[in-house]
Amino acid sequence: MREYEDSLHGLEGEFMDHFPPPPPRHHPLARERMNIQKSSVCSRAYFVVVMAFFHIYIINIIALLLYVHYNTGSGEQDVLLEKSVPGPMPEHQTPSPNLRPELSFQLPRLEGIRVGHVQRVSLVPDRTHNMRTLSLKPLLFEIPGFLSVEESSVVMQLAHLKGLTHSALVTAPDSQEEQLTQDELFSLLDLNQDGLLQREEILSLAHSTDGSWLSSYNLRKIHTGLETNPSGVLSLQEFKRVSGGVLQYSGAGQGLDGNAKVRQRSTHTRLYLGEGTHHLLKSIRNRVTRVTRLPSSLVDLSEPMEVVRYDQGGHSHAHHDSSPPNPDSSCAHTHLAANHSNQVACRYLTVLLYLNTADGGGETSFPVADNRTYEEEVLGDLSQQYCDKGNLKVKPVAGTALLWYNHLSDGNGWVGELDEFSLHGDCSVTRGLKWTGSVWVNVDPDQQRQERYQRLVSWHPEEQGKRPEHGDLHQDL
Ligand SMILES: O=C(O)CCC(=O)C(=O)O
Ligand SMILES: [Fe+2]
């Protein structure tokens, strides 16, 4: 043992620092010495490691502070300048109708990844939903449980209360067909049914592509009457005075998108999703904002939801919900900011809600979905027999939503060409009834016109002093 200790002494220094031999197990002196050696070696390494962690820790803290600073510093995450996808918005938080007119923005677009891909989306507090990609052309998703079955029933009841009408409502005055009285028209315009016409209700009609109700001329007349009325609203009497004798009907007798023409055996109504309406309808608007990740201002300014009831045998022919961008026409929803009289529907995307589970038939059919060999001629054939030959058919299940883009992207974050693959129709209801609600998000392919329109309607009641002068507004009308 003594020899061993001596030899240890001899080896101390250069060699032993690196390769200390194992100490004899039961010798207290040797253990003590080894502890000293070990602790001196360990303390250096320990110090280096601690310092490394300390530096990483400090760098992390700085990075975190910078992140927090740049993400909350401006406080403008949910305004129009949304180059990136905005974060989820709490259900109870109503998207602000207050627009930032000076800002321009881009349109985030969902990713389909591949057919069958499922992503989680957060629409309401305390639960998430699955969103499944059904096709890439068009980009189409299915979201089961978008509405609960109870909520779906409430929407049907609200539509009942509002009153469902056959599609062709107002026709030329000399036509034999049904014509609306001023009282009926007032009631249709009075979306929140409070007995008064607010500016938003007039404007929401302007967004509505159902041009059969009123011509632009009449719309302007009513709008001017409301703007010049000191109370800023129109009662039924005031409405009659303002519109009396000037009511000219558009004479079209059809919705601008032709839906009235393509739908058979159905009745419909419009439900307003904006301020002052039923909380469920506002919640639907918020869910659409969240699932689409679009700026809330776009969804807020879109046309009212259309609820349709298909009776047995009811169906609709294959159609596109939107129109190809065309410099010679203006969008119905922005026509207040345009000079064209030729109006078309501009619906960037559709959220179709199934409000009940049809007992038989009533599938929504996408005849050319994901059809890589698609040709114009084939489209013509398929549109006649889309139901049998359709590539993709979706069965109506209460509460499920379909979401699809009617337009491609223009490659610069704005609306591009009409997506021909978004052609769709619905098969005949063979048993029972089918109820749907369509929410369309309107975007003008002319970005400047969309922005001009948003500036035009962006004033807020408390900003009375700042709102555009009538002269300015009417120049654009
Ligand atoms: O009811 C459906 O399945 C489709 C309805 C539709 O496409 C429409 O209303 O534009
Ligand atoms: Fe449609």
TrEMBL record:
tRNA processing recorded as keyword: no
Cofactor: L-ascorbate
Keywords associated with the record: Calcium, Dioxygenase, Iron, Membrane, Metal-binding, Oxidoreductase, Transmembrane, Transmembrane helix, Vitamin C
Keyword Glycosyltransferase: no
Single GO MF descriptor: iron ion binding
Listed InterPro entries: EF-hand-dom_pair (IPR011992), EF_Hand_1_Ca_BS (IPR018247), EF_hand_dom (IPR002048), Oxoglu/Fe-dep_dioxygenase_dom (IPR005123), P4HA-like (IPR045054), Pro_4_hyd_alph (IPR006620), Pro_4_hyd_alph_FE2OG_OXY (IPR044862)
Domain Fe2OG dioxygenase residue range list: 301-443
GO cellular component, one term: endoplasmic reticulum
Record domain EF-hand: where: 177-212
Any Pfam family matching the protein: 2OG-FeII_Oxy_3
Segments passing through the bilayer: 45-70
Region (Disordered): 313-332, 458-477
Gene3D superfamilies recorded: EF-hand, q2cbj1_9rhob like domain
Biased segments, Basic and acidic residues type: 313-322
The protein's name: Fe2OG dioxygenase domain-containing protein
